[in-house]
Amino acid sequence: MLHQSLDELRLKADIVPLQAERKALTRAERRERWALLLDRHDAPLVPFLRIETYSKVARGTLRVDQGPVALAYDDRVLRADGLAGDTFGDACNYFELSQGLAHRLLCDCHYRGTMTGPKVAARLRAAENGIFRHVLNWVFRQ
To answer: Rg of the chain's alpha carbons, rounded to an integer?
Structure first.
């Protein structure tokens, strides 16, 4: 068997790593991928119930089946990029959501009737574009 260095082999062949290096998604890319998943979801979603009644620590461990965060966690791309689980805290950490924004996006008290994927996606995109902040500043300035 002939032993050669990697540099010597590169002269003779194309060397391809077994696993391509992945570039981590930016916050905007993570949020947009989640929004796309939500847009495609045609069944009702289950919101978190009364998030504001829990302590910050307890809030982080909350989870619901068939909710927006569970939908994100089912996506292999988001999991591979670092989404650790389907809890409220996992969503806040991975998508870089403040507690207040996560509450406005995911809690039942902000939805009249049924929570749907497109509704959550629209709110998520509005938050990414800074619309929530502008509206809140305008409301509280009055």
So the answer is: 21
Nearest to 87 by CA among 105, 69, 104, 100: 69
Structure confidence by residue, pLDDT tens digits, 71-112: 999 999 999 999 999 999 999 999 999 999 999 999 998 887
**How many angstroms separate the CA atoms of 59 and 42, rounded?**
27
> The pTM is what?
0.77
Name all contacts of 40-47 with Cβ < 8 Å and 24+ positions apart: 40/117, 41/71, 41/116, 41/117, 42/117, 44/114, 44/115, 44/116, 45/71, 45/115, 45/116, 45/117, 45/120, 46/115, 47/106, 47/107, 47/108, 47/111, 47/115
- Please name the residue that has the structure tokens 């870089």: 96
Q: Identify whether the C-beta of residue 48 lies closer than 8 Å to the C-beta of residue 67.
A: yes
pLDDT of residue 62 exceeding 90: yes
